[in-house]
Write a structure and sequence with these properties.
The chain has 157 residues and is of the alpha+beta class. It has a domain of 106 residues: Gcn5-related N-acetyltransferase (GNAT) (Aminopeptidase, 3-Layer(aba) Sandwich). A hairpin with a 2-residue loop joins β1 and β2. α1 packs across α2.
């Protein structure tokens, strides 16, 4: 992962590659964002260590306030998760991370990205559409509470 993601700074945020040392803070963001649907810390650790994953963190001063992770499959990737702490939302943080993730993906030869998002997560869907993701279907009962997921796809160019 090193060399793929710059340490870009915008306002008081910086974005960098995640490391194993970040896992406790990443898990705080995960549980604050997804509660009962949170991924286990063991999965997040596997993703940090996976050479096929792009895992970035958003840092405000010295605190990790967000993260984004995708995993490669040939020339496509799957956006596994993106999250920002509730107190830091609606300030462009998710947009900055997604822009960086897409740029790093393109640098690695990835030309399309897929994701799933709760059908009732209007803000996230709006963000993904703004970045050029299009709807490709709905998966009923995707989440543990029985909620459906909207499947989306983006051509990265």
């Amino acid at each position: 992962m090193s060399g793929c993601v710059s340490n870009r700074r915008s306002e008081d945020f910086s974005i960098r590659a995640a490391s194993v040392m970040d896992l406790a803070e990443i898990y705080v963001v995960e549980t604050a964002s997804f509660a009962k649907d949170a991924y286990p810390s063991s999965l997040l650790e596997k993703l940090v260590l996976d050479p096929q994953a792009i895992f970035i963190v958003l840092v405000n001063k010295s605190e990790i306030i967000g993260y984004c992770v995708s995993k490669r499959n040939n020339t496509s990737s799957h956006l596994i998760s993106a999250a920002v702490l509730p107190d830091h939302r609606r300030r462009g943080a998710a947009s900055r991370m997604l822009k960086e993730l897409l740029a790093a993906s393109y640098q690695r030869g990835i030309r399309e990205m897929f994701l799933e998002v709760r059908t009732d997560n209007v803000r996230a869907i709006r963000l993904y559409r703004r970045f050029g993701f299009t709807d490709i279907g709905v998966t009923p009962s995707y989440y543990s509470d029985g909620s459906a997921a909207l499947r989306m796809r983006k051509i990265i160019d």
